[in-house]
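Incident review: delayed structure delivery

Summary: a single-chain prediction request sat in the queue longer than the usual turnaround. Root cause was a stuck worker, restarted by the on-call engineer. No data loss occurred. The affected request and its eventual output are reproduced below so the record is complete for anyone auditing the incident later.

Affected input:
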Amino acid sequence: MQLLRIDCLGRELRLEGSMAGWQALYWDNQLVSQHDAKADPSETPVHHFKLQAGDQELNCELHLKLNWQPFELAYSLHVDDGQTQQELSQGKLGEKDIEQQVVEDRPKQPNKISIIGLGSLGLKLFKSAKVIKLLFAAGSLAAYTWLFSIEFAIALILCLVFHEYGHIRAMKRFGLKTKGIYLIPFVGGLALSDDRINTRWQDVYISIMGPFFGLILSCVCLVVYWITDVELFAGLAAFNALLNLFNLLPVLPLDGGHVLKSIAFSVNSVFGLICCVLGAVAGVAVSYYFNLTLLGFLLAVGSIEIIFEWKRRHFSDLLPLDRYGQIVSALWYFLTVGGLCTIIWVLGNSGSEALALPLKILGS
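Output delivered after worker restart:
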């Protein structure tokens, strides 16, 4: 992950590193110093490197004091021209600085045209095409109207949009550029961003805010149902609760899977792998027991994400959660799950038929 970006002799000096101790130092996108992963990553080495400033060769040193949990990086940059040594820059960075930084892509060699490259280009065109967004919204409305009714289709789409809006608000909370909300027929919704996240906390916050907004909407619908006794609001409260509870299953790529992954991989990579695999096994059981075909498809996608996360464990671009962040994330997750389960339990014991239609929707 990117740890530091500072000015050095009029050009950018960028430090990248991982919890395993690997570090690479770039000056104007040129690698000037590198340290491999080591048995004791707590030992932070000094980066010694030479820079050419005109006709003069300068001996440089970057001193670091790095603590991962809680994250704190203190640095000082020294330059020696052979006669005098001076300190060019020094300072400290915390987790907030990592959250707000703009990540610089590593320099890449130009690739030949490939199927993967064409697929990536097609995805970018898809993400930027507003007409596709409108077509998908219309397709979703038509699909749910065909399955149920126009009234419930509109209400269903409003629930999906409110859920995805929670993700959008969370992205904007961290200053991320958003592409908006896409409604996928028979699948649900998708909130997209142009920017990459920098920390596990951002992943947790963005993932859980969708179901949390859903919990708020279910509570509002439940209160309106108690006031008006209109069955539609009971159905909306129940469906919204079930929809968001489904999203909180600890299965990648669902929201709950991202929360689990961020907490578990912040402990260590082996624990993260075990938790994600156990979540996938639990997902298979739920998919089989409730006959949820969609969940089976999502499990296949999530398996690829687990493999990718494991392969990149030593070079993760995300700052891990500290112990406090892990506890807060877990409590927030279980409180949201508990609130959604409470709404379902209340409606299930109220004598209302509110749960019948939502269960049919999820089953289909």
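Verification: The CA atoms of residues 58 and 82 lie 8 Å apart.
Action items: add queue-age alerting; document worker restart procedure.
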